[in-house]
Amino acid sequence: MDYDFHQLVKSEGRREPEWVEWTSSQAGKDQVARLYCNNAGAPFTHKRFNGVVSDLMDVEQFEPNELISGLSDVHPAAEVFDASRVPTLIIQVTDFKCGTRKSSRVLDGGSCRFYKNIIEEPRVQLAVPEGGAGYRTFKMSRSRMNELKAEALRDSQVGTLSTVHCVSAHLWRLITEKRGHASHETTRFLTLVNCRPRLKDFPAGYFGNCIANTISAVTVGELLSNSLGHAATIIHNTIKELSEDVIRDSVDWLSLNKFQWIFIRDDLFRPADFSSNLHTVIGTWLHRFSFYELDFGGGRPSLAGRNGFRTGVHSTGMFFALPTSTEGDVSILLLAEKYVLDRLEDEL
Description:
The chain is of the alpha/beta class. Helix content is 27%, strand content 21%.
């Protein structure tokens, strides 16, 4: 692919002013993330790799690799993640013999068209399972998701279930089964919920996050001995309980406590004993985000998605459901214990 790198840099500077102002830096005070819209710009790195993409990563799986994200240069890995040192947007162009690629860090999808905030990373050191953790990326077709939804609805205790509930329940059961925990132990499924449509008179111009975590918890025995529809119903009912009153009560609590670290309040956002992450499955659905419509001056992306986990900061048993270039299909990026990934080899 022939292109003028300097012209590409200039084209980034011509982004609409309201977006350019956001390419600044994050700052934290009292452990609360803030965004200073100071038009400071974004780090723009140009690197050359004397080889093709397949020399650096598996082109079939496209496993995350921070070497091509720009993050490792701007903010080297540390045991404790410090968001205040990370710019809001990082751009890196990497030249390969087979072409180029650019990655960027994005913001909340409800706040603007392009920059989408994925998820706030835990600021605690979580245990890494013995044997380490690994990644696996696999695609799930629209037809397969419809099959899972139909199966769940046959045994559901509610009238309707979303595709997200059904596929999440399937992955929750699958990962829990492969972990091999005792039937009396508790397993949890945690997922993010958009609170904007749940609040009356929500300001249309609000910029920032308005999300909450919901936690479904049952014993391993109950989850695995019952049907897919039973698990999907548990997730459905948990999310349904997140009413406007619950959300506003949470906002009031945060205000009274001067917006201290929001993840410390019991089961409001995540379990108090969240460090037992080997019993937790976390699902984040980004399948409706228009990543494949983005064009920062270099053309529409051939691949879009999350570019990395930091083991020891993120929890194992976490999956991201992302859009693909094929409408209706999703790409699922799973971080799990290596022994779990080995056991899942024939089922993903």
